[in-house]
Design a protein that fits this description.
242 residues; mainly beta; single chain
Length: 242
Amino acid sequence: MISKTILIGLIFWATILIGLIFWALAGCGDDTGSRATDSSSACDGGSTDGNTTDARKADVGHEILQVVSPTEILAWISTDITTAEFEALELPSGWIKNSLRETEGDGGSFAKSPGASVDGVFDIQEHFGFSWRHVATIVQTNIQLDEQGLLIGSRVVKSHELTFEACRSLVVLISPQRDMYVRVTRDAGRSSDTPTLPSGWERVDYQTPDELVIQLPDTTLVIRADNQDSFQGPVPELSIRM
């Protein structure tokens, strides 16, 4: 049995850190970076000041988390449930609804459920009267990445591909080891657009000169900043381009 204290802690970190489902449905971007990198002249003439909001509307995603153990939290998504039905769900102990997140980017997909041997194979189950698909598993939470505790990480097993169109501004978090993490989601109720970063970490803008497809690692490090921005990676594709 998982104690109530441990369960609350696991649910808290899982809810804040995962930010997964919206990429399975659609993406929408809005950037406020600290420094812009060089970009192709094909993007000249567009706004790169980080204050332009993309006009596309993000779809609303619905995700629930199943706490199996401290090292196994399953993320389930559903495209069958409406927002009203999702909000009306009453979940038992060990289950929680993920928080509302704003997405960035232009699309994405999950190739398979964690543990599946081939792409296209998903664990689909009925929970609480709706069909859900298992897309990710959180295997480690509450990873402190700096002495001040400004950045907290979790490790998530998933087969997750992200797509950004040409001339899109990405916000990238760079570690002291020069590993790069792309901002994937933001907390809809955030009180600040700019996170507080520890010494040695950097937050920059990168404008894509052409379409960029990112295949996140099979075990992705998801980093939460103090304003609850979610960065994921590391992303070697960005190391090559920047």
